[in-house]
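[job 4471] stage=fold_predict status=RUNNING
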Amino acid sequence: MPRGVINYGHGPKNDGTYDPGAVGPDGYQEAAETCIIGTKIAQKLQNNGWDILAIQDGDLKDITDQANSFKPDAFLSIHANSAAPEAHGIETYALAPGGVGEKIAREIQKELVLATGLTDRGVKFANYWVLGKTIGYPAVLTEIAFISNPVEEALMHKDSWNETVAEAICKGFSRALGVAYGETKKDGVGKVLDVAVLLYTKEDYWSGADVAVKNGDCAIFIRPDDHSVPKEAMSAQKLIVVGGPTTGHPNEILLSGKTKYDTAQAVGKYLG
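[job 4471] inference complete, writing structure tokens
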């Protein structure tokens, strides 16, 4: 079984503070986007037979310490780029030219550009902490788009775009390592899930992620703009709804309230 580490860039720190990463012109935080993309990647790779360690941590040493203890076949860090508002496109980093690290970076970069149509800024090399301190296995870091660019930040608000990005990364990552990969949508075509979490909007993601962890890192779905319920979520044996109205699922747990604070309170009570 192949083993991989997926690092969602930025997040909570040991001192109790929170590193949001870059913040877009509309206020969207990089850490929120990397968590959404990273969770999708981890679920898709697990569905394809990978043993995955997922890490979101604002302390770089903690990330590499956990990764090195896990001894993966490869490491992938997900980020969103930031610069001037007009900067745009995708770039992927490896530590140095040559070897498997560069191969993974090139395959991921190729798939992302093909799938999204965004500008190809190429494969680059840098001694970033997560690339230089991961020992004994290849490591790459991909900047999926510019959160500082209003157009590309707007793309990040679309679940369909996030799904496309995650699928492209999984294809490139797997191909570079010689691992067969079958395309998956959400948590697998035709697979009936034991448990799924359904969020009303992206703003419910942090609460929903904790609920998913309590249920064995189960699949997370977000209602589209028309607030319909994805069929994969409705087919799950148990559906936990975070925010918004009931779905009518026969085995539903509804964690919702009139305001986002009421919803957070319901989630907190559920988590104990």
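[job 4471] summary: The chain has a mean pLDDT of 91.
[job 4471] exit 0
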